[in-house]
């Protein structure tokens, strides 16, 4: 079916989220919807899926105007959503998960007709090449397969228009390739696909047309073969962006971080890090690549004093730090950019200034022992805000009110406000737009050039390749390969990430 | 928005909640008004006006009972006799006496809530504080009165702090949930008081009830030197403590740790703060405040230690902490409101024969409306707070 949105406008208090946005996608075509966080992509999709109602504008399906009062209307009209966070019941099997809410029933009592549900699931999965075991339990499935189940769910509800919201965020490079195959197959079969993302490469690879949103408006609609990454980035941000921050070759000096046969257990007591040997030198960036959940979180927590080391040794600048307190580690000059900024790095209901001093509040000039020195705190925080170009109304604004990019800048500003010997940065640019990514990468490289040792942990291949002077790939709790930046190609790292070596 | 309006904005919802509670309360007053209900078939307008008149009378009696009668104040000014002044001032004095223990326990609970520790043990900490004060007072009765008094108050603080430390320590060390442990320790505290009141050291030998000797040899000084007015310096102490707690939470390094741990324990831990230390400190401070409240109660408002020194102050405190938005100033205001309702309710009961239970009902409505701020905002068509936060939050969650 052909989908068209015409002049959609949606105002929230203080924010014009969508300002006369028009997009269209023909039957069997893939529309890439590209934009930074806060550009209005999600609001637009919530309007399309019936969660919000537009203030003005219309939704046309095959030329007919439709209004959706709730998500059920949108589903009836043939619109299927695959959310970034999956909506599946972990203990159900695939058939039950797909049929849930639209179960075929049989008999007098109207019991769940599992056999016919299963038949449809198998039909759909063969028809569209969505390879899943219908009897498998959701919790046993890898993330990529769970996503296929979500797509099956939409198809099962006879969706002719499929909306995918940031679908690659949770996938490995290999799984992303498979997803693109599936999308192409769906389009060939007549499904209209809307693919929402902030990743330039992906829209270029899979979309038939690309509409770029910026600050609630359409910044441009282009064809992939007629555009470049640089042009797309410019449309997204509104200025030229350096996609890969240039850096001089590393000049590694003495070893700062030294891991020897390091083993760390996860919360359930299983070994998450299984004997890692790795050195990070002053003046170099080592990027640890790997799919989420291969022990990177536990590794970072062990280095920063948040998790006990099971065996092996861990030294920073020659000093043994295994099982030191987080404060001791940070006092030694270790900066930590945690992987989940809102959970680990910031206190949303406290001000920018308070978050700026979160790990040095007990030191001069912020504290006199008993009392906090409000004036010094405000002054230093204002300095950080200026230096790191943090967009905030004031240092007394709650940090939760800032955009993701600015929140991350608060953390980076805080961590780099102290003398730094080692930087441990986990997912430093997760969920950020290209402009903020550029900025944070540049700051990290500055720290390297100033002589700090840098350990980056990232699941983003682009980031690993852009920053790593050496790339270490982690798989199942071990380092399965360390590549120099010349050896580290997308293919080589991707293979190691998938456990092929 | 101007500075003043921004400052007053947090007050809007609680004030409207109180107003709503009185409006809904008046509906129930009318519905329980059998005399006027019976009149509806014959004289509906008369029934309505009559019922509304009764409601107004009841609320008037409530106000007079809580704050005093202007006519009596006028009389006191005219006559100037101590007796006339006592009569005029007694309602407000009793309101403040009723509010004093609530201020202490409310502050105690607010401190713990700020740290995201749910101290449900205010009751136990309060009675043990009262017990501690009584024991120290009796032990030091031969010393000069000021020493005895300070010792007794310190005893209350110590007992209360100890009773806060135990669940705090258990949570920090073993993860034992403080809601369970503090509730259970309430019962233990009550039994300790029972046991202590059986000892010859405490017990008043002439009384068959478990009640202590009269502790009138040392009292917290009265605020107004008129016979019959019980208001004592404990009330001023509560105000001072509220200011101190406010300073502690918002201006000190330790207070920063407590607030950080309360808002986001993970981030506090990542920033190098000791989560266990914050939990223990919050529980100790919380227990100490409740204990001090108990000490002032037994050394000021009543003169004998018994299980009756406490009437659910630790429980009401939970509502007060929420009503006051866990801000010390807010808690003081909430405690004054509840003190006024409790005390004014007696006046209303005497004047109109409306049972005191209605006041409990109105208190419950206040709590309900405060607990459902969205409901209050809907009723009065207020804008939701901080729309820009909501907008970025939704974008961030899915984009």
Summarize the structure.
Chain A is 32% helix and 26% strand. By secondary structure, chain A is α/β, with parallel strands linked by helices. Chain A is globular, with a radius of gyration of 25 Å.
Structure description:
The complex is a heterodimer of chains A (501) and B (399). Chain A is an alpha/beta fold. Chain A has three domains: 3-237, P-loop containing nucleotide triphosphate hydrolases (Rossmann fold); 242-333 and 419-501, Rossmann fold; 346-418, no CATH class. Chain A is built from 17 helices and 22 strands. Chain A has helices at 41-48, 71-76, 94-99, 114-128, 143-156, 173-188, 200-206, 229-237, 296-303, 326-331, 341-345, 352-356, 374-387, 404-415, 434-449, 461-467, 490-497, and strands at 3-12, 15-25, 30-35, 56-61, 64-66, 79-82, 105-106, 111-112, 161-165, 192-197, 209-214, 217-222, 255-265, 271-281, 285-289, 311-316, 319-320, 334-337, 422-426, 453-458, 470-475, 478-484. In chain A, the strands form five sheets. Chain A has a six-stranded mixed sheet with strand order 6-9-10-3-11-12, with helices on both faces. In chain A, strands 18-19-20-15-21-22 form a six-stranded mixed sheet, sandwiched between helices. In chain A, strand 1 (3-12) and strand 2 form a beta hairpin. In chain A, helix 14 packs parallel to helix 15. The two termini of chain A are 44 Å apart. The radius of gyration of chain B is 23 Å and the shape is globular. Chain B has a single domain, classed as Orthogonal Bundle (ABC transporter involved in vitamin B12 uptake, BtuC), CATH 1.10.3470.
């Amino acid at each position: 079916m052909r989908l068209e949105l015409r002049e959609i406008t949606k105002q929230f208090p203080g924010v014009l989220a969508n300002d006369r946005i028009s997009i269209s996608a023909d039957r069997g075509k893939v529309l890439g919807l590209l934009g930074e966080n806060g550009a209005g992509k999600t609001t637009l999709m919530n309007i399309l899926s019936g969660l919000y109602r537009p203030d003005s504008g219309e939704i046309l399906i095959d030329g007919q105007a439709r209004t959706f009062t709730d998500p059920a209307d949108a589903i009836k009209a043939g619109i299927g959503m695959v959310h970034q966070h999956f909506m599946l019941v972990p203990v159900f099997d695939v058939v039950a998960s797909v049929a849930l809410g639209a179960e075929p029933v049989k008999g007098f009592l109207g019991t769940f007709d599992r056999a016919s549900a299963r038949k449809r699931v198998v039909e759909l999965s063969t028809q569209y090449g969505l390879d899943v075991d219908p009897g498998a339990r959701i919790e046993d499935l890898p993330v990529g397969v769970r996503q296929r189940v979500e797509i099956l769910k939409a198809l099962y509800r006879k969706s002719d228009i499929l909306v995918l919201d940031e679908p690659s965020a949770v996938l490995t490079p290999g799984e992303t390739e498979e997803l693109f195959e599936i999308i192409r197959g769906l389009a060939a079969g007549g499904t209209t696909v809307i693919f929402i993302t902030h990743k330039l490469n992906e829209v270029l690879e899979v979309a038939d047309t690309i509409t770029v949103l910026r600050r609630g408006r359409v910044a441009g609609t282009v064809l992939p073969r007629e555009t470049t990454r640089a042009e797309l980035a410019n449309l997204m941000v509104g200025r030229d962006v350096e996609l890969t921050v240039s850096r001089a070759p590393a000049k590694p000096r003495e070893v700062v971080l030294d891991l020897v046969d390091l083993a760390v257990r996860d919360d359930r007591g299983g070994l998450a890090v299984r004997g890692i040997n790795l050195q990070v030198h002053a003046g170099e960036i080592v990027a640890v690549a790997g799919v989420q959940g291969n022990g990177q979180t536990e590794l970072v927590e062990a280095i920063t004093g948040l998790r006990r080391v099971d065996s092996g040794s861990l030294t920073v600048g020659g000093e043994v730090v295994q099982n030191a307190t987080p404060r001791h580690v940070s006092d030694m000059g270790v900066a930590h950019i945690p992987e989940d900024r809102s959970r680990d790095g910031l206190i949303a209901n406290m001000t920018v200034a308070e978050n700026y001093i979160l790990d040095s509040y007990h030191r001069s000039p912020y504290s006199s022992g008993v009392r906090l020195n409000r004036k010094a705190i405000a002054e230093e925080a204002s300095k950080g805000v200026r230096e790191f170009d943090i967009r905030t109304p004031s240092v007394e604004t709650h940090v939760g009110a800032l955009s993701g990019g600015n929140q991350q800048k608060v953390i980076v500003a805080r961590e780099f406000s102290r003398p730094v010997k080692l930087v441990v940065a986990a997912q430093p640019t997760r969920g950020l737009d290209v402009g903020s990514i550029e900025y944070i990468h540049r700051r990290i490289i500055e720290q390297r050039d100033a002589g700090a040792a840098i350990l980056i942990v990232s699941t983003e291949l682009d980031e690993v390749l852009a920053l790593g002077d050496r790339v270490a790939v982690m798989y199942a709790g071990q380092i399965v390969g360390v590549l120099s930046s010349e050896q580290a190609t997308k293919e080589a790292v991707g293979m190691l990430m998938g456990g092929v070596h | 928005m101007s500075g003043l309006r921004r400052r007053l904005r947090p007050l809007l919802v609680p004030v409207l909640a109180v107003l709503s509670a009185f409006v809904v309360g008046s509906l129930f007053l009318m519905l329980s008004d059998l005399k006027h209900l019976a009149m509806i078939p014959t004289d509906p307008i008369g029934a309505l006006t009559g019922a509304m008149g009764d409601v107004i009378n009841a609320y008037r009696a409530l106000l007079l009972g809580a704050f005093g009668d202007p006519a009596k104040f006028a009389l006191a000014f005219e006559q100037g006799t101590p007796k006339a002044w006592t009569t005029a001032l007694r309602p407000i004095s009793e309101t403040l006496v009723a509010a004093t223990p609530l201020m202490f326990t409310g502050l105690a609970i607010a401190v713990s809530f700020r740290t995201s520790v749910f101290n449900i043990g205010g009751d136990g900490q309060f009675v043990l504080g009262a017990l501690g004060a009584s024991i120290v007072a009796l032990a030091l009765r031969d010393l000069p009165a000021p020493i005895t008094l300070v010792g007794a108050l310190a005893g209350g603080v110590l007992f209360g702090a100890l009773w806060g430390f135990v669940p705090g320590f258990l949570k920090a060390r073993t993860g034992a949930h403080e809601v369970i442990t503090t509730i259970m320790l309430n019962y233990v505290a009550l039994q300790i008081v029972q046991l202590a009141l059986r000892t010859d050291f405490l017990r008043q030998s002439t009384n068959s009830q478990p009640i202590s000797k009269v502790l009138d040899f040392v009292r917290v000084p009265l605020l107004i030197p008129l016979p019959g007015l019980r208001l004592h310096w404990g009330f001023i102490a509560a105000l001072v403590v509220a200011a101190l707690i406010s300073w502690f939470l918002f201006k000190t390094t330790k207070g920063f740790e407590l607030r950080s741990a309360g808002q986001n324990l993970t981030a506090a831990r990542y920033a190098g703060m000791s989560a266990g230390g914050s939990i223990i400190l919050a529980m100790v401070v919380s227990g100490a405040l409740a204990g001090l409240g108990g000490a002032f109660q037994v050394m000021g408002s009543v003169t004998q230690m018994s299980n009756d020194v406490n009437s659910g102050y630790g429980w009401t405190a939970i509502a007060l902490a929420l009503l006051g938005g866990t801000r010390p100033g807010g808690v003081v205001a909430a405690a004054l409101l509840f003190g006024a309702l409790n005390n004014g309710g007696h006046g209303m009961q005497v004047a109109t024969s409306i049972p005191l239970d209605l006041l409990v009902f109105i208190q419950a409505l206040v709590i309900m409306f405060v607990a459902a701020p969205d409901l209050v905002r809907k009723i009065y068509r207020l804008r939701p707070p901080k729309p820009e936060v909501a907008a970025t939050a939704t974008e961030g969650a899915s984009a």
